[in-house]
Amino acid sequence: MLRKNPSGFSPVVSEKAFIDPTAIICGRVVIEDNVFVGPYAVIRADEVDAEGNMEPIIIGRDSNIQDGVVIHSKSGAAVTIGQRTSIAHRSIIHGPCEVGDDVFIGFNSVVFRSHIHNGSVIRHNCVIDGLDLPPQMHVPPMTNIGPEFDLSAIEQVPPDYSSFSESVVAANHWLVEGYKKLANEL
What does the record list as coiled-coil region(s) (predicted)? Predict the structure, then answer.
């Protein structure tokens, strides 16, 4: 469901994207080409800052927002999801936040007040809050990263995880095409 927010902004969604009918896309949201938004996802840009301003939530081309994901922002801060990025089932991305290109964020993970740089892999049940993650970092399952976390405790992304991330993007790209054909949109 696409809907306007109280400030009057409506989502801008590429005709080449697929939004599941159960998903809610609200307000100042931009969804680029070949994006898959799965069942029950919520992408909501509706809060404003003290001056009444709101930055957009942008989902970059070829990315996928899987089932039950929530993307929102505090006080109208920007949220950007890069290209070819996967946000897995039931994760929460809460702005202010930037997620780079070719990033994988695993099931049930939370990202808040952080910049996740290109090529990083965050496994399931992780929390990244208030610390930027350099490029190509691998965050093991159930890791909590905050401002005092020593990033030298985690390693670079192993090659097998990079290829896994690429396969998830490819699978979801195929789903965009498949669901659009079912809906007679292609």
Answer: none
Q: For tokens 């890069």, what's the residue? A: 82
Would you state the pLDDT for residue 170? 83
Range from 14-23, 96-105, 115-124, 155-164 carrying the lowest mean pLDDT: 155-164
Q: What is the pLDDT of residue 145?
A: 97
Residues 86 and 78: their CA atoms lie apart, in Å, by 19
- Look at residue 183 in the predicted model and tell me its pLDDT: 81
Distance of alpha carbon 39 from alpha carbon 55, whole angstroms:
25
**Domain boundaries of the chain, sorted by first residue:** 2-182
Q: Three-class SS of residue 169?
A: helix
Return the SS3 of 108: coil
Positive or negative CA dihedral for 25, 58, 54, 106?
positive
CATH class of 2-182: mainly beta
* Predicted confidence (pLDDT) per residue in 12-23, tens digit: 999 999 999 999
CA angle 122, 125, 126 (to 5 degrees): 50
